[in-house]
Amino acid sequence: MKAVIQRVAHASVVVDGATTGSCNAGYMILLGVAQGDTEQDAELLAKKIVNLRIFEDENGKMNLSIKDIDGEMLVISQFTLLANYRHGNRPDFLESAKPDEANRLYEYFKSLVSREVRRVEAGVFGAHMEVTLLNNGPVTIVMDSEVLKKKK
After folding, report:
1. Rg over CA atoms, the chain
2. Which residue among 19, 40, 80, 132 is the active-site one?
3. What does each C-alpha distance from 117 to 36, 47, 49, 62, 105 come to in angstroms?
4. Per residue in 84-127, pLDDT tens?
5. 144 contact partners, CB below 8 Å, separation of at least 6
6. How far is residue 24 CA from its own chain's centroid?
7. Whether 35 is catalytic
């Protein structure tokens, strides 16, 4: 499972002309589910993300988590994070999970972060989405649950 975490001042997602999710100061997360991912992958990422200290404290140091600042989160499913671009110029997405399993783990991830973050909103799984955000920093971090598994 891969996640792109962007520290934002605000973000929103629109589907078919209607806003389906938004957040104020916090994270906009793009989440890609790979074949073979499990609940453990979602749990590892969720725990790391909600405790990640990338918000500035009173001394201007990145020392606070999203929980510390009472931040918000916008989570968007993005299978293109699993793009295989090694051969040719047209990526394939064969490493991404099948839609039913990807959606199940996406929903599970959202439920996990919702336990720790006051407000979590989302895009629409499988829809064409228009995302707007104001990256704060800019701060962008890419995480892979496989990397977190190797840590142990």
Report:
1. 15
2. 80
3. 27, 11, 11, 19, 18
4. 999 999 999 989 999 999 999 999 999 999 999 999 999 999 99
5. 1, 2, 3
6. 15
7. no
CA–CA separation, 20 and 39 (whole Å): 25
Amino acid found at 18:
A
109 is catalytic: no
Task: For residue 8, give the nearest of 30, 25, 33, 22 by alpha carbon.
Answer: 25
Q: How far apart are the C-alpha atoms of 125 and 102, rounded to whole Å? A: 9
Please pick, among 6, 55, 79, 109, the residue that the annotation labels catalytic.
Answer: 79
> What Å distances lie between residue 58 and 40, 55, 62, 98, 137, CA to CA?
35, 10, 10, 45, 16
Left (φ > 0), alpha (ψ -120 to 50) or beta: where does 28 sit? beta
The C-alpha atoms of residue 41 and residue 108 are separated, in whole angstroms, by 10
Query: Is 79 known to be catalytic?
Result: yes
According to CATH, the topology of domain 2-151 is D-tyrosyl-trna(Tyr) Deacylase; Chain: A; (3.50.80)
At 152, the pLDDT band (50, 70, 90 cuts) reads low
